[in-house]
Design goal:
By secondary structure, the protein is an alpha/beta fold. The chain has a single domain (about 75-380), classed as TIM Barrel, CATH 3.20.20.70. Helices cover about 40% and strands about 15% of the residues. It contains 14 helices and 11 strands. The chain has helices spanning about 20-30, 40-45, 55-60, 70-85, 120-130, 150-165, 180-185, 200-205, 215-220, 220-230, 245-260, 290-305, 320-325, 365-375, and strands at about 85-95, 100-105, 140, 170, 190-195, 210, 235-240, 265-270, 310, 330-335, 375-380. Strand 3, helix 6 (about 150-165) and strand 4 form a beta-alpha-beta unit. Helix 4 packs across helix 12 (about 290-305). It is globular, with a radius of gyration of 20 Å. The termini are far apart. Bound molecules: iron/sulfur cluster (SF4).
Length: about 375
Amino acid sequence: MRDRTDHMRYLPSQEVISHEIMDRILGERSNTDFTKFSSDDVLRAIGKENRNIDDFKALLSPAAAPFLEEMAQASKAIKERYFGKNIYLFTPLYIANHCDNHCVYCGFNVHNSIKRAQLDEDAIIKELENIAKSGLQELLILTGESQSKTPVSYIGRACELAKKYFNVVGVEIYPLNSDEYAFLHKCRVDYVTVFQETYNPVKYEKIHLEGNKRIFPYRLNAQERALKGGMRGVAFAALLGIDEWRSDALCTGLHAYLLQAKYPAAEISLSVPRLRPIINNAKINPKDVGERELLQVIMAYRMFLPFANITLSTRENAHFRDNAIRLGVTKVSAGVSVGIGEHGGKNQGDKGDGQFEISDSRDVVAMRASIKNAGLVPVMSDYIYV
Ligand code: SF4
């Protein structure tokens, strides 16, 4: 077998920061036995006003499975206390799909034969204009992870352009050093999303075969470097279904919790993606993470981190999303296209393939109507810049 880079050792260009949060997460991961929690532990956790780490573990444990209805009632009440009836809307904009990494579960991986594309400034502006017509005020800009094809300067320029059309702009790109995050902050980026995929270092090594993404600690500490670079918000996720989902959900929640404790002003968000089929590999699926398990994760997050936004993407179907926004989710995407340059219509020009298949293709009008039907209030943005 070919020698591969040591996934726990930083590359020379990668900034090293304190490991205290990573060490704590990995320690909790190793020391947690979810089978030791009882129904009493779960009921105690549900009944509490403020929940500790052990309560969070109980809510993720197998013992919580019979109590999803009780969790739903508690979760719904917490959501309404902290967010009222608001459900925030955004859409992702993929501006390139080049990637130098080999993640075995992703359609953008460097060895997957797909149509690659990258939008130039004019094409980005066209996409921004098309999306802005929907009335959305929040945009998440994404690329594959290729620092050579999509350097930070290119992404920064795209964000500056986006800010002319949108009130809130986030990025979901390759992890950066804190000075590069500071540059993006100057380009008026509001928040940074980085999916750790799995917090199991052994599994991580097996599925991230090539590229900078292979370096586990550099990815895990990305949110902290983003906050050091001045970002207002950071978002976290494990890709559920890659490894044991309870452990990955525990680590994701802990990661957000510990970083919030260290940086109290940070705005924290969590996403709950499950594996999806990709181009050239329709067999990829989220294995043992069914909809009940996914709901359990959403509600455990809500009860442990009441202040955090929870985002649910169009990887999930409309019925599930309509249910989840009542119970714990506070932010949803709409009018989604995961292809490159498709917001003007699929048949316009030379476009790039998408990262994965989506399940909910509702546009912004339909999504707003569904939110209202659920007795909730669609919100485009509630940020005011002074
Ligand atoms: S998951 Fe991200 S880094 Fe990995 S292949 Fe896909 S786009 Fe590239």
